[in-house]
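Incident review: delayed structure delivery

Summary: a single-chain prediction request sat in the queue longer than the usual turnaround. Root cause was a stuck worker, restarted by the on-call engineer. No data loss occurred. The affected request and its eventual output are reproduced below so the record is complete for anyone auditing the incident later.

Affected input:
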Amino acid sequence: MESNFKIECFRHKILGNKQCILEVTNDKIIITNITDSPNKRNELDINYNLFVDFKVKKKQLQAIGLTTNKHHWYYADHDNLINLKQILGARVVFKGVNTLYNPLQQIGQGTFSNVYLLQSKINSLEYYACKCLDKAQVNEQIGRQGLFEEIQAMVALKHPNIAELLEVYEGDVSYYMVMQYYDLEFTDILKELNIQDIHIIFKQLVTAVNLMHEKGYMHRDLKPENIMFSDSIYQLKLIDFGLTTKSSGRSKCGTPGYVAPEILNLDTKINEYNEKCDIFSLGVIFYKMLTQNDLFQGANHEEILENNARCNTNFELLNGNQKIPKQAIHLLKMMLQIDPTLRIDSKDILQHQYFTIEEQTHNNTINSAGQLSRKHSSVIKILSPIQKKNGMFTSPFSIHDDECIENEALMQPIPTVIMKGGSVQDMVKAKTQGINRKLSKDATKKYQTTDFDDIVSEIKQSNYRPPKPSQLSEMYNK
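Output delivered after worker restart:
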């Protein structure tokens, strides 16, 4: 087995330290005790049954703890331990999330999870997003294996346009998925895009989905809310793989207005669907980019769902707009075929004339984007943990831009739904009166994050979005 990484370390023993060599291969951690004669060798499989934690002192990693049947501490140089932590990444389960990170604020809430902004305790200028899931809820909905299938999908899907999962932590009552933090949301810049921007963005999105399909995965929840950017429109990041699957599609899931009709009209006992469901969702997103309107509309989620299932499309806004290329309209109609067997696939989309025509050089990389991200972000002052302990704060984000507050008040999240029952007609019959469908308590409950309780309990939760990463470091220094 070829070693990818090797460091010297030691274990504390009563009769003196034991010198060791720790090596990492593709699928194992190999520890050789070189003090012993002959040398003793221990091999640990790299998987989600291997638990890893760290000792930290004065912002320096001192030791890595490895647990299978027994727990042992291995002491080594800080830089080597940082590299080891990055190499293991999301392929093992880490313990003690509060040892390495401070939670600053809740920045998002999904149907089955909360998302927090984290600050590294090792480097105070590094910020991350953390998806927190209640273990009891996970076990009830998908089980531990189901969660780690999502994790394995994210690990397998390495691509510049797919958000990278960095680490997975397991606490007493919660799971934590630590990812890169992106603040520039697709929904924020949608109305600012010109036809060249749309071309740049959509090609990245299709490229990311094409990689998923080549590896046998379906996303099943493609929508504007699951598209982010890192500083510019040239750095698209597809996020949220909670409904991603590698198996055949036999469950009804997705977001009203973006779900493929074959999912909504599915008879789960006799039918199944494939990756073409993502192509339909891409088509709905493409329509919104071109027209600034929702393809399927309604007074409530049930009406949207009904129009979505019947595939009631209206292309008048497209045909009457001379700014929209004819190639884009042709591609869109191929993506929105109600019959998935007639629908274009992701590989052929990239070969479509909409993308193969000569591409002109564009200079609008959202310096537009820099302005947009600041327009839609809160201006904040970050308080140190010492200031928090001394009660010198009301919120970690204490200064807000008036325009941002006004915009934030208008934002309403669209829930992802797991649909049960027969055809869409059966679901529509049971629709409730009123403008909006309310989620159940189980769907909207705030999950426990006890590993963060000592800090989170001090923070007054706010609805304001934190700033982009480049602003964080700048403001922290000030």
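Verification: The chain has a mean pLDDT of 77.
Action items: add queue-age alerting; document worker restart procedure.
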